[in-house]
Amino acid sequence: MCYRLALAILVVLGAALRSQPVWARDESICGVWATSHGEAYIRIYRVDGLFDGISLPSAEASVAAARAHHQPVILSGFAASPDHPGLYRYGRIFDPRNGQHFQGRLTLESEDRLKVYGYLGFSWLGGSTHWRRVATRSCSLSADAATAGKEHVP
């Protein structure tokens, strides 16, 4: 009886996990995002299981082109929450306007909307903004590197 109950619970949990929306999966944060006022583009990618984001000179640019243009890393070290799909925590946010670093949290509110929350010390001492996805790209930088020499960057 316990065996059947345990099996039934596993089947239900497995179905629930498979039925998560695409935007709630671990790699769905990857891609190119426009900041709230569209003044910058950030490419989010995965490095050693954590998520980083670098400022791009244009929405079509690769990470290699961004590095060649000495673009800053805006997001670093974000970990996907195992308990809350679409939530990324424990990372750092760099504000290039004032050179300040913040602790941060990213929340994927929909497939094309990312809430970026930065704070100093205590999570209630902060503020948020929303970014809009402009392109979906692989989390892998190897795919990005394949196009590095093929784009036009002014």
From TrEMBL:
It comes from the Bacteria. Residues 31-133 form the DUF2147 domain. This is DUF2147 domain-containing protein. Residues 1-24 form the signal peptide. InterPro entries: DUF2147. Keywords: Signal. It comes from Acidithiobacillus caldus. Gene3D superfamilies: 2.40.128.520. The keyword Signal applies.
